[in-house]
Amino acid sequence: MPRGRAADRGIGVFIRRSGYLRKWLILGVTIGVIAGLGAVVFYLALDYSGRFLLGYLGGYDIPKPAGDGGDPGSPGFERPWAIPLIACGGALVSAWLVARFAPEAEGHGTDSAIEAVHTDPRAIRARAIVVKTITSALTIGSGGSAGREGPAAQISAGFGSILARRLDLSYEDGRVAVSLGIGAGIGSIFGAPLGGAVLAASIVYREDFDYRALIPGFITSATAYAVFGSILGFEPLFGYVAADFRFDHPLDLGWFVVLGVVAAGVGWLYARVFYGTVALTAKLPGGTVIKPALGGLAVGLLGLAIPQILASGYGWAQKAAATDTLMAIPLWIVLLLPFAKILATSLSIGTGGSGGIFGPGVVIGAFVGAAVWRLGELAGAPGLPDGPAVFVVVGMVACFGSVAHAPLAVMIMVAEMTGSFSVVPCAMVAVGVAYLLITRTDVSIYRAQRRNRETADAERRARAEDS
Question: In angstroms, rounded to a whole number, what is the distance separating the alpha carbons of residues 287 and 266?
Answer without folding.
Answer: 31
